[in-house]
Amino acid sequence: MVCSRAEAAQARCLTDCTPRIGIVSAFGQEADILVAQTARKRSVVINGNRFTTGVLRGNRVVIVLSGVSMINSTMVTQLMLDHFRVERLIMSGIAGGVNPAHHVGDVTIPERWSMPMEVYWNHDGSPPAPCGSAGDVSCLGLKLASVDGKPVPSFNLPEAPTGLFMRENFVMTSANSPKGEFRFDYPVDEAMMGVARSIQPVLQRCGPKAVQTPGAEPDPKQCVAAQPKLIVGGRGVSATVFLANPHYRRYLFEQLQAQTFEMETAAFAHVAYANQVPYIAFRSLSDLAGAEEFNADVGALFSSGLAEANASAVTLAFLDAWARQPRKHGARP
């Protein structure tokens, strides 16, 4: 038996069939900020996960905390899509920086997301050839990654190649069934990106905890050195690792021009694509992934609450702008 698209859509709202924007946050404190500003709140717990519905900045929403990791992001996002009528998705949280030109406290809105550590681990740096020719892994049901039509070379350490070659992911949807397809990039929704390019959120240099006494000046130790900026465009990447390797971070920047690295969004994007739900993601930069020196800005970002404050400021600015769009976008009160 094959379910029709209409039947599949109907099965998606097991709990609540009101059209909503789904917001998934990987960071608890930021989810708390968004929930606190949500009107007409109602909460439901599904498989231990608390989903909060209501109206946030003129949009009907459902908010959930995924927790860290690709697996948690995948499970919670699919759970949300099954139980609520989610017309659009937003992921928001904190990430490591990859582009060395960016600073702690900046917020990025990449235009696409990838999973670079979905890999074929070869014995050396030569393209694998298990199916007869260099780079052909199709007999294993796999496909090596290409960017702009060119194969991505393996990751090499200074002393030796690792043999790690990026792969594309197989994804099945109602649109590409029964063959499915391989994808390396998951583009964000064009309409949502258009609105994101128009917003001008106020990003703070000092977190809310930087002021110990009302009316006093902020504690400079609780402020980052550079004024945070909003960075729109480029590629974000996600993997099942906490990246603390400067060589791999440089590799990602050189080969993919990646801007940020974290552990949730690309999996979230895969689920969004598989379910044909438009998405976008906002990520506040906490550090330069794999940095080897101590950075006082990192401590200030987390201890002052700046990380969640700036990330939520972008999410709220986007929702304000989205609510002013034509009603065809849905999820309005």
Automatic annotation (TrEMBL):
Family matches, as CDD domains: MTAN
Domain Nucleoside phosphorylase: 20-319
Recorded GO MF terms: catalytic activity
Listed InterPro entries: Nucleoside_phosphorylase_d (IPR000845), Nucleoside_phosphorylase_sf (IPR035994)
GO biological process: nucleoside metabolic process
Pfam families reported for this sequence: PNP_UDP_1
PANTHER family (UniProt xref): PHOSPHORYLASE SUPERFAMILY PROTEIN, PURINE NUCLEOSIDE PHOSPHORYLASE
Protein name per its UniProtKB record: Menaquinone via futalosine step 2
